[in-house]
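Side project, low priority. Logging it here so it doesn't get lost.
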Amino acid sequence: MHPMVKPALRRAWRERQTVQFGVTPAHAVLVGPLDTATGSFLDLLDGTRGLPLLREEARAMGLPDGRADSLVERLTAAGLIDDPGGGGRAAEALRERTGTLDRMRPDLASLSVIHREPGAAMRRLAARRAMRVQVRGAGRVGAAVAAVLAASGVGQLDVLDGGCAEPSDVAPAGLPARSVGERRDAAVRQLVRRSAPGRAPRAPESPEPAGAGEPPLSLVVVAPRDGLAAYAPDPAASEPWVASGTPHLYTGVIEATGLVGPLVLPGGTACAGCAARVRADADPGWPRMLAQWRSGRRASAVPACDMALATTVAGLAAAHALAFLDGELPASTGARWEVSLPLLDWRSERIAPHRDCPCGAAGTSQGEHVMEAAVSHDTMAG
């Protein structure tokens, strides 16, 4: 290991014996007391020296024996030390792709702030390249989500939608104007290829039967062009994901409201069927109105979808998806976040599992289910 103080965290002396790493309260760490010589030793933790050389440098600076090791241990425990050569075999393969890694260095720096252990940032960035995500919907929101996920290093993105791209699909974060008239899903796949920082690694040889060579879905992002299908999703559409245990995240824009979530962990958090039952219990008239909305929209009507709102929602949905893929449980887990124009005040609604839903999420407490899913997912991402 060649210890390196995480460069993404800006350093400042709060006073003569206390150093603050990081600017914002969410990530700032105070270290002290530090004398002048020990403070100077921090500059040597730049990833170019192993511990034996650091010990020699420390002695040359007049520091007592053991100070180099103890300081590295303290900083590591505080989440301030990274290992530029860590992360495992997949991380080493990514380092060899210098062009790909150069494009993703800002993402790597961000991950180093979030994940405390040395080498964790590179390990997670490399793990994304082996993941497969499906985006269902290639409108203003879905196309942007797919592009951001590709640019963030997700190795395989399946995009599903029908019809041809229209002028209203064109967006700065999504389809370009030249895509108008092309098959919508094919156009977004081209967008994904242009956005990706490099080609994904080949899948390893697998003993799976023929036709099962591609990796399983890590996540499905449901981003329909008609936001009603995300705001009030059809439980029948999600049955295959619930049955297979595939996590799925809803997002979209309806009228002048954007939404992100819920992220459904099958058997652990409320599914679309739970949400439909909970809403019908609270509002007996809801199923009747929903049936009219689903069947009554004119085919020629263009769904409202403000450009800035769609871009904002897509960015947040992609961030929630990446947090999950990296082994975390974002705030959309079992909850829907909404934001409406013109005031743009984000609000969240927790969606509880329904006792009559066959998904089984209400079988035990939601907290226990989520913790079990978190442990399982974190093991997969690690």
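Brief comment: The longest strand covers residues 257-264.
Revisit when time allows.
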